[in-house]
Amino acid sequence: MELNGRTVVITGGASGIGLATARRMAQSGASLVLGDVEEGTLAEAVESLRENGARVVGATCDVAVEADVEALRDAALANFGGAHLIFNNAGVGGGPAIGTPKAVWDWVMGVNVSGVINGINAFVPLFLEQNEGHVVSTASLAGLGGVPGMGPYCASKFAVVGIAESLFHELALSGKNVGTSVLCPGFVRTRIFESERNMPDELKAYNDDPKVRAISSMASDAVNGGIDPSIVGEAVTSAVLENRFWILTHEHAAIRTSEQRVDWMRGGRPPRINLEGATRP
Ligand SMILES: NC(=O)c1ccc[n+]([C@@H]2O[C@H](COP(=O)([O-])OP(=O)(O)OC[C@H]3O[C@@H](n4cnc5c(N)ncnc54)[C@H](O)[C@@H]3O)[C@@H](O)[C@H]2O)c1
C-alpha cells in the first residue's frame, strides 16, 4: 500500500510506538489522525509533528468505547477526505495471573482487545467498500508465549494475535485489496510500564500492592533496556508498504518462543523465561 496522500489513524498515538510510527509515516507523505486518552500529551505530540510539517489532527478517545473509535474514522473523513490505515496500537499493562482483581482484568482486556475490535468494526467496512486499506494491530511477544507476572496482558495479546490471524484469512477470502499485519515486539523504550497513569481512579490503589510494585519495577528495567521506538515505527511502515503480516522487531526471540511452545506441546520441557532475550532484536 502507498502511504503518500493516504490517511493513517493511530490509536495510542501520543507516546512511544504510536508516536514514532506517526513520525515515520508522516515522512512518507501520510496525513495523520492520532487518537489517545491523554489529552495534554496528545496536544504536545500533534504540535511537534506539525512543527515538522506533518498534516495531523488529534482526537481524545478511549479505544474501549466504540463511539470514540468511530469518531476517529469520522475525523479522518472530515479533515482529510478519507481513511486508509488503522493502527490499533493503544495498550496497557496489568498484573499477574494470580490475585489480580477482575476489574483490572476487565480494564486491560477493554483497552487491549476491545480497542482492536472497535478499530476493525469502525474501519474494515470502509476499506472493503473502497477496495483499499490496511489494519495493523499491536500484540507483543507476550502474545506468542505466556510470561509470569503478566496474566491479563498475555491474555489480551494472545487475543490480538488470534483476531489478527482470523482477519488475515477473512480478508484473503474477500479478494479485496485490504491487508492486515500484527506487531509483536519485545521490549521497546516507552512508557508502557507506567500504564497505571491511565487506569480508572477507583482501580489505582491496586498498584500499591508490593507484589505489583515488584513486577512493575522489574518490567520497567527491561523496557528501559529495550529498543528505540523509531525502530518499531520503521518496521511497521515497511510491513505496510510490503503488505507483510508478521512484524517481528525481535525476530530471534519471537521464533524461539514459538518453537519452544511447540516443543513443550510435543512433551518437551516448559520454556525457560528469559527477559533478556526479549530486549535484543
Ligand atoms: N514498550 C514495549 O516494550 C511493548 C512491547 C510489546 C508490545 N507493546 C505494545 O505497544 C503498544 C504501544 O505501547 P507503548 O509501548 O508505546 O506504550 P506507551 O505507554 O508509551 O503508549 C501507549 C499509548 O496508549 C495510550 N492509551 C492508553 N490507554 C488508552 C485508551 N484507553 N484509549 C486510547 N489511548 C490509550 C496512552 O495514553 C499512550 O499514549 C501497546 O499496545 C503495548 O502493549 C509495547
Question: Can you describe what's shown?
Answer:
This protein has 281 residues and is of the alpha/beta class. It has one domain (7-187, 199-278): NAD(P)-binding Rossmann-like Domain (Rossmann fold, 3-Layer(aba) Sandwich), CATH 3.40.50. The protein contains eight helices and seven strands, in the order βαβαβαβαβαβααβα. The protein has helices at 16-27, 39-51, 66-80, 102-130, 151-174, 210-224, 229-242, 251-265; strands at 7-11, 31-36, 56-60, 85-88, 133-138, 178-183, 246-247. Strands 3-2-1-4-5-6-7 form a seven-stranded parallel β-sheet, sandwiched between helices. The radius of gyration is 18 Å and the shape is globular. The structure holds nicotinamide-adenine-dinucleotide. Nicotinamide-adenine-dinucleotide is lined by residues 11-12, 14-18, 36-38, 61-64, 89-92, 111, 138, 140, 185, 187-188, 190-192, 198, 223, 226.
Concise summary:
With 281 residues, this protein is an alpha/beta fold.
Helical content stands at 40-55%
Strand fraction band? 5-15%
As for the number of domains, it is: 1
Radius of gyration: 18 Å
The total count of helices amounts to 8
The distinct ligands, each listed once, are: nicotinamide-adenine-dinucleotide
Silhouette: globular
Mean pLDDT: 96
Q: Strands across the major sheet, in which order? A: 3-2-1-4-5-6-7
Tell me the major beta sheet.
7 strands, parallel
The top-level CATH class is Alpha Beta
Briefly note the CATH topology name.
Answer: Rossmann fold
From the coordinates shown, what is the CATH architecture? 3-Layer(aba) Sandwich
DSSP summary, beta strand count: 7
Helix-strand pattern, N to C?
A: EHEHEHEHEHEHHEH
Distance between the termini: 25 Å
Supply the helix-strand structural class: alpha/beta
Unreliable residue stretches: none
CATH homologous superfamily name?
Answer: NAD(P)-binding Rossmann-like Domain
